[in-house]
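Data availability excerpt. The first of two example chains:
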Amino acid sequence: MDSSSPLLVLSSQFIWPKEDLVDAYDQKLTEPHVDLHGFLKGDQKATIEASHLVRTACMKHGFFQVINHGVDQTLLATALDKMGPLFNLPFHLKTTASAKMWGFSTAHSNRFSSKLPWKETFSFGFDHCKTSNNEPLVVDFFSSMLGHEFQEIGALYEKYCEAMRDLGLALTELLGISLGVERSHFRKFFEDGSSIMRLNSYPICEQGSLALGTGPHCDPTGLTILHQDQVGGLEVFADNKWHTVPPSQNALVINVGDIFMALCNGEYKSCVHRALVNKHKERRSLAFFLCPRKDKVVRPPEKLVVGGGSRKYPDFAWSELLEFTQKYYRADAVTLQNFTKWVVSARPCDV
C-alpha cells in the first residue's frame, strides 16, 4: 500500500464511539457446524437434522457455519490467494478502478465522513443467469476496470461466484424446509437474481482498540456466504453480548440478511455482526451476498403469516431497500425497521 493511502494513520474519521467498541464476551460463539453432505445428497434424515440446527440458529441470531458444503477447497484457497495481486496494486490505480458501488473502495470514504471502517474492498455484481444487459460478466468487469492482464483472475472469481450461487440456492431450500414451507419457495425467489461479491482487506492497525474493520450491522441482502482466512476478527451479537467467531478450517459462515428476515415475516433474525482489526496481521475475506432480481417483491408466504396474524413488514422491492442503504441510510443493526418506516412514509396514501 503506497503512501497516499488513508489506511496508514488512524485519523479521527476512523475512531468509533465507545458503545460500538465494547469488548466481546469472553466466551466464543460455539454453535454446531451444519454438515450439508447428507442434505446435498438427498438423505432425508440428514436433511431433517440439518434443518433443525439451522432453525435453532436462525431464530436466535441468524448465524451458522456449514461444512461439507460441496465447494472445492482448492477454489476457496485460490480465491483468497488471488486477492493479493488486487489489493497490492498502487493506490492511485485503485482510485481509478471504481464506478458507483462497484470496484475499489477505501473505507467507504466516498460515502461517509465519520466512523470509517478500517478496510479496503473490491466489489462487483454477479448475474445468476448471465442474461442481464445491465451488468457485465465478471471477466468483462475485471478486464474493463483493471486491464486485460486481469482476465484470468476475473475468470477465477466468476467460477467462485457460480459456486457460491449454487450453494446459496441450496441453502434457501434448507431454510424453506426449516420454516415448513415448500422446499422450492425461496429458491424460486432468488434463482434469477443478481448477487453482490465483495473482497475485503483489513490492513494492520496499531491502534486497533479505537477502530473497527466493519461496524455493527445487519446485511440488507438475502443471505451472506463468508469465506475468511485464519486471522480472525468476526464477531456476532447474541444474547445481548458480542461473541467471537474463531475461523474454522473448511467451514463457510452463513448470515441471514434483512431480505430473508422480511421473507419469513421476522421469524428468523438478520444477523448483527462486526469485524475487528488486528495489530499484527492483515485479514482478508470474501463475502457473497445472495440477492434476488431488483424488481422482485419481498413478501412472506401465507403460511408464515400465522393464523391470520399481522405482517411485520410491508411489500417492497429489493431495489427500494438497496436505494435506501446506498443513498439515505448507513446499514446498521436496525436497518430493516427504519427502512420500513421510510418506505411507508414515501408511498402515497390510499384515498
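And the second chain:
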Amino acid sequence: MSGSAKDCVALFLLLLPFLLYQEVEGKPVIGGCDLFQGRWLADTSYPLYDVSTCPFIEKQFDCVGNGRPDKLYLRYRWQPSGCDLPRFNGEEFLRQFRGKSIMFVGDSLSLNQWQSLACMLHKFVPQANYTITRIGGLSKFIFLEYSLEIMFSRNAFLVDIISTELGRVLKLDSIESARAWKGIDVLIFNSWHWWLHTGRKQPWDLVEEGEETYKDMNRLLAFEKGLRTWAKWVDQNVDPSKTKVFFQGVSPDHSDGKLWGEAGGDCGGKTWMLGGPEYPGGPHPAEQTVERVLEGMLNPVYLLNITTLSQLRIDGHPSVYGFGGHRGMDCSHWCLAGVPDTWNHLFYAALGLPNNDNDHHL
C-alpha cells in the first residue's frame, strides 16, 4: 500500500466515529442503529449513582432506603443492538447547558425522570451549590454555579382543567397553562396515566370539546384529542432554533401479569426482567397514539421512545418499597437509581453532547 493510501486509511479511521453519528428525521442514530432497540445487560459498574448520596431524593422512589433487599435491578445497562451509547458525563452536560433552562412537564413519571437527572448530575459535582424550590405545581432545581435550572411542572393532562358551576371540566381544546412553557430551552413532555383514572382519583367531572360537553369519553380517544391540542400549540408557539422539544414516551404500568404471561400477577416480588426484545403484551396503544400525533407535526419533536425497553423491566418498580410501604403496591413509578436513569442516558445521547457539535445541542 502506498504512503498516500495509508494516510487516507488513517484519516478515515480517525474520522469514523464522527461519520457514523448522524441524524435521521431529527433522531440521532449511530451507524444507522436505533437507540431504542436493544437489550438489557448486567453491568457491575452500575448504578450510575448511589442513591444514599443524593440528599434530595423523593422517599417514594428510594427503594433501597425503604428496605428493598434485592439489588440486581440496579445493575442493568441498556445496550442498543447496533451501537454503544455514549458514556453519560454530568460535567459535560453542566458545561453545555450553563445558563440554560430544562423543564419536564407531565405527571409523576416526569417527576421520576426529573429526580433521576438531578441525582445523575449531582453525582458528578457533589460539592456544587444548589437550591430546590416548590411553588404550587412547579419545582425548580438550580445548579447555582452553572445557572442551570432543571424544572418539573406538574401537568398530568397538558390541556386545561377548569372549575365551573357544573363541576371540574377537562377541556380537550384549551391549553392556557402552556404560557409557562414559553422561553424554556429544552422541554420534555409526558402524559397518559391520569387519563385512565376513574372514581375518586379522576380529577375532572366533565369533558368538553368545542361546544360539546360529555359525561365521559373513550379515554384513548380523549388522550389523542388532548395531545393534538398540545401538538398544535407546539407548532404555533415554539421556535425550533431556540427550543428543543422532547416527548418522554409512555412509561408502562406492570399491574397486570397477564400481559407477560403471568395470570393474576403484578410487579410485586419481581427480581428479574423479561428477556425481550419485544414485550409479550404487544405494542402500547397510547404509545402508538403518541407516535401518530408526533408524525403529523410541523415542528420536530424528539420521541424518547422508552416504552418497550421499560416494558421489559417488571423488576424496576417500587412495589411495596415505595410511598405507601407495605400497605400499597406501586407498579407505575420506578425505583431510583433505576430505569429512569436510562431514559436520561438516552436523553443525553439525543442531545449529542459528547460530540461537541453545535448542530446537535443548544
